[in-house]
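Thanks for the sequence, V.! I ran FHA domain protein right away. Repeating your input here for the record:
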Amino acid sequence: MNPLRLVQLNEREVGTIHYLAKPLMSVGRATSNDIVINHQQVSRKHLVVRLSQDEDAVIVEDCGSANGAFVNGERISTPVCLAASDTLTIGDIDFMVEEVSPQDEAIRDSWVQYETRGTIDVEEYGNEDALVEARIAELDALGLRNSMPDEAMDQVAQIAATLFSADCGFVSIAGDDDIFYKGAHNLPQREWARRSTPCSLVVEGHAPFWIGEMFADQKLLALPFLKTGIERHFYAGAPFRGPSGIVIGTVGVTDFDERTPKEPQLQALDNLAQFVERHILLQLEKRRANELHLRLLAFEGQNTPFRS
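Predicted structure:
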C-alpha cells in the first residue's frame, strides 16, 4: 500500500498537506497532537489515524469529538478505513485523501519534520485577535514594527530565490493590518495588506505552506496578490518566530512557473527561516548593548568631578 496524505480543501490553510507517516497519529486543536488544526469546530483531540496490524490499511477513528468526523459525508462512529480520493471532514474542515507518489517521498519526509516544530495554539491566547495583539507586542519589543528594509534580509531573499531558481524571494514581517517585506528580491512592492498574500497562510496557520499552482485554487484566486497582472503560480513559505514562539514572519519565494519543490529546497528554506530568527535576536542584543553603553556614558558624565 502506498502512503497516504491529507490535503486541506477549505479555510485559510487551504492546500496544506499532512503526511500520514507514523503508525499512530493524533489529530486535533491541541499542540500536543501530531497534526494540529487550529479551528473552533475541532476538538483538542479530535481523532486518531493508525495503520492496521498488517500495515495494509489506514484507519481513522473518532475520539468522541463534539462536532464529529466524517468520511465521504457520513459521520463515523466506529473505525473506518481510508482510501485515496476519500474526503475526510474534521469538524468543519475538509481534507482530500491522496496517495503519496514515489517522487513525493522525500518531500513527505521533510514536511513531517516541519510539522514537528513548535506551534502556537490560538486557544492559549483566547482568540485570533489576542494572538495578533501578542504578535504586535513581540514586534514592538524586537524593534521590527514599522522598521526599515534590512540589507542582510535582502540577501536572504536573494538566496531563497536562487535556491528555488525562482523569480522572487522575500522575508516578510506580519503587522496588524499589513505584510511588510523586510527583505525582498525582485518584488514589485514592499508592503501588502496582511491577508492579501499567501504569506498570511503561513503566519496564521503557524506552519510552512507551499502550492505548485496558485491559480488552480479558487480560494487563493481571491487574494489581491494574484490580481496584479503578474501571474505568479508557485509559492513556498516557511515561518520564523520571535522569542516567545509566536510566528512573526516568513521566508519565501514565488515564481511564474508551476512546480513541485524538492526536499533539499524545502529544508534550505526552513534553514533560512531559522537564520532570520537568529539574526533578529542578534540585532536585538546589539541594540540593548548600545543602549547600555549610552546609559553608562551618561552616568559617567553626571559623576565626572568638577575641574576648574
